[in-house]
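Rotation project, supervised by the postdoc (A.L.). Task for the rotation student: set up a whole-complex structure prediction and record inputs and outputs verbatim in this book. Inputs entered:
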Amino acid sequence: MSVGVPELQSLADSVVEQAKPGEHIEAYVSRGGETSVRVYEGELEHFVSAQSEGVGIRIIKDGRTGFAYAGTLEPSAIAEVLAEARDNIQFGTVDQWAGLAEPDGVAQIPQKFWDEELANYPTDKKIEITKELEKLTLAADARVRAEQSNYEDGWAETAVSTTTGIRESGRGNSCYVSVATLADDGDEAQTGFGFSVGDSPKEFDLKKAAREAADRATRLLGATKPASKSVTIVLDPYVTSQFVSILSSALNGENLAKGRSLFADRLNEQVADPRFTLVDDPTNPLAYTATDIDGEGLAARRNILIENGVLKKFVHSSYSARRLNTKSTGNATRGGFSGGPGVGCLAMQVQPGNKTQAELIAAIDDGVLIQDVAGMHSGVNTISGDFSTGASGIVIKNGTLGAPIREFTIASTLQKMLLNILDLGNDIDWLPMRAVGLSLVISDVMMSGS
Amino acid sequence: MTKIQTVEPLVAPDVLERVLAKGRSTGAEFSEIYIEDKRSTSAGLDDGKVEQVTSGRDRGAGIRVVSGETTGFAHTSDLSERGLLAAAQAAALAAKQGDGGVHKVQLGDVLRHSVNTVKLSPDAVEKSRKVELLKRVDAAARAVNASIVQVSAGYGDSRKRILIANSNGVFSADEQVRTLLRVSVVATGDGGMQTGYDSLGHTIGFEMFDENDVEELAIRAAKQAVTKLSARPAPSGAMPVVIKRGSGGVLFHEACGHGLEADLVGKSASVYRGKMGELVASPLVTLVDDGTMTAEWGAIGIDDEGHPSQRNTLIKDGVLTDYMWDFLRARKESRAQSGNGRRQSYQHLPMVRMTNTFVLNGKEDPDDIVRDTKQGVYIAKLGGGQVDTASGDFVFGMTEAYLIENGEITEPLRESNLIGNGPEVLKDIDLLGNDFAMGNPGTCGKDGQGVPVGDGQPTLRVRSLTIGGTAA
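Outputs recorded:
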């Protein structure tokens, strides 16, 4: 993004300029704001308007690293943060690979991150949209109530400067609406949600969000607990996105270097069915998490990770790359000013197949369409590969959808699931998540119920 | 109660009064300011190296204005009078496009309510001593077995001063200190890699390490990973499950805790709505949420709305006796708050949250509970969980578990999730031990906010839970 916010860039520069002999300094500064609107039963429940800012400073000297941050950009606080980071150096262990990223000559691919219309969008229209979404949701199905209807937007400006010559700054804004629903049927209640994202509110599809929120809540009414057995599952695009996201950890070069990747020693081997190709491509503007630079300020780039089922590449930051004697793939991640960079996939994309979801389902005799999963954080171990999540969905019998089922789990291992991919849909959905969604068919998964 | 003048105030009382008055300037009936000043230190060790020591400072104020059913909220990191008045103006406008009347707010003495005693403030401890703990953890874990190939350990402490004042005259302050140590271990064997994890966290200072052995913590995590190397796939299907004391509080947190939060009940998004006075659990179960439980991870002197923490009995002998409440929900029902209004930081709105949630002791000898179980699963360590409060369906992970065969704990099992339905599982508890213990420190997520919580229970048995393994 090069210098897009001169004021923040010079603030970052002013920190870096204070480097003492032998010190390498990285200064990351940011500020931003958000609006959050929530509507309930036709009334405004809350309106949040907030601004925040902060600075994170990383200093490396003689192989030791120190870090400090503060949630303010006051000059006295920045001086204090610099002093704290410097003080923290002495406690680190010498690490011969510690260091900052260096400019690598890879050109950034310009993208549009700022929408002027969103920046100037009037407050009362934001409230109107949120009320409209609630209204549309209630109209979609008589059994549906709206627990909350939300509008959220945010803007951020960031700048990073280093003693190694990286100077990048830029700004972006984004917005979305979401609605959480409840469907009642006598004693039973089920929940659902729907959302829509856009560069500006005019791109929202409120009707689709309302329809999905109503469908998600009502489709599980009357669901029963299935009997345990091994089945073929079709993951709905929203579930596939979550499934693909967890692979990021196994493809992480730092995890590889530290012996924590289940793909260790598998480079150029068949780790998935040949139909499966996985790319990390933050330069694709369709991806929700698209970016032009990574968390260290290097240009974001397209990396093929798994090609026709063969493991081709791990993703790296400058640190993991130095450790493994390779080059950064532009995959440093950053969670804001309060921490240093990590490693991870930025925008994961699966190469689509050529069938619709209906066509995929038509080819299955005995299976389950998995519409939602729960407990990805507690039941999936990306080091051992053990996979087990709660799930709900719809029975597939002889190629057609049957009754809804809930309160069961699906289990296998990540290794086995990748090899058991039977087919992929052509129903690419650019969800507001780190990985794209599409329908994914996986065989021989244990369904555990009654 | 002590006067605010006795300690350095985060913001002078007369400034607070003007800010609260500004919050009501558009005619809103309630304004509140929450001020936070938090200092934290963290250190991480991985792959045998202390990677980084981090110092953090978060300071700011959140201003909430309530007009009827509408809440306006703004926050700022600028604690000057000018910054606070600007935020109050923004919150006031957000809540109501106003009447422009003049409103006056007067505060009395500040209430200081503390449930924890900090003997050794983290500020007073050299960072080198904190880093030293990590090196001890690393060494102890690696010494357990040659199969241990990786150790990662983290230390964290925080000292958070909060001050809350509102236009109803609430004026409270607290200082909350937390100290945490966690360790994760990777072991490798013929069947691939397995992991172990353990943690220790209390709302006390560095004296935590005088009272707890960090080597023991490291050894527990390492043994967990090593044991799982020979684990067989977890079973599938419904069966009796025995949960070891202090490891299954998350079951109640998910199976009913969230469902007893008044904001969810108020919107009929809880399976426990309209069940007050009814039998919702086995008569063996008495469930308590207690923010005053000294030194436990969810202990707080005051909640984040300035209300003193308290002990609330939610389920008594299986009968639902109360929900948990914050200011807004209590106001709506014209009843008292329960000290459960919490928020992640000054950048967040408060809502109903748990503190320390636990089940009181039963009468059984824990060994008898296992002996009485012919076939089933024994869970020694649970991971996180998740619940859909409207249907009551919940999951949680088991990170250390064993088969029970003929009344004996036998082979270790690989990780999996368990799934159940809250109201059904609560009624299915048929044996409750007499060996109560609190569990590991946890972070509870709700609506995008994380807050520290504790949980606990004695050893217990659930007649039937669905294990999400792969074995038939």
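Student's summary: The domain at 6-218 of chain A is CATH 3.30.2290.10 (PmbA/TldD fold).
Supervisor addendum: Chain A has a mean pLDDT of 95.
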